[in-house]
Amino acid sequence: MLQDFTSNKVKSTTSTGDISLKNGTVDSIDIDSSTGNVNLENITCSSLIAHTSTGKTMIKSVIASADMELTSSTGDVNFDHSDAANISVDTSTGNITGTLLSAKTFVCSSSTGSVNVSSVSAGGTFEAHTSTGDISISIV
Model confidence at 135, in pLDDT bands (50, 70, 90)? Predict the structure, then answer.
């Protein structure tokens, strides 16, 4: 776990194992995990890219001033009081759930699950797609 940090760039890659970042300020974050969970908490950044092949992604109190891009082949993606100018989430098998801090224009689809997002259309874009899973995002 990387905790209590300030950096220009954080790049973390693992074949097997979790990646956790907590209490940090960084320009860009780039995470790639083959098998393992990604946990980010209390992070302020410009951009965030996180990819997992198998594992859950938990984004708690993470603010990206530009773009946030999250992908997962198998695993849930959960937001907890987080936000970015534009957010893109793709999963093959997994739910996309949680809370954002500001209204977005939602472009979401699920092949075999339900989609429950705000009908308000404002601000940046929240684009989310899953083949097997539900999408449920609310604004707080």
Answer: very high
